[in-house]
Amino acid sequence: xxxxxxxxxxxxxxxxxxxxxxxxxxxxxxNRKDIMDMASMSRTFKMSFCTYERPANIVTIKLYSGIHExxxxxxxxxxxxxCDIFITFRWPIKYEKTCEEIEKKLKEVxxxxxKMRRTISYNLDHKEQMTLEITLDFKRKITEEQIDDLSPxxxxxxxxxxxxxxx
Length: 167
Known about the structure:
Elements lengths: L5 H18 L4 E10 L4 E9 L7 E8 L1 H8 L7 E12 L3 H14 L4 E9 L2 E12 L4 E2 L6 H14 L4
């Protein structure tokens, strides 16, 4: 019988939670990717969603597991194996000063826990159309012991999107 990996178990719980919210129209799932990279022997799972009110404001939750985690779990039978999780928020913005407002609102929801990385990009032909991406990096692995933290994490993503509709 097939014994699923930690990655698979976390992915199923995360995916189910997000799709349940989509079913009840709390959010709208706009993209889903389940990638197995054969060159690096890694797995990546991404789900992107938005609110119905502001479809241009998008959050992507990314779950990642590399070959080292797979070997630790399947070959070395370690029990504390985990996956990396990253959350990226993406907004169209008009002014760079909006970035600080958005970052402040995110820190209110996430309580300064994750490290935030900010990226601003724009089209060379339309410099007034900028896009802000803020990626939250929790700087630790999430294991099956923290599987119950996934739903509150999605709650925080939805709360962040709702809070930022005011900006």
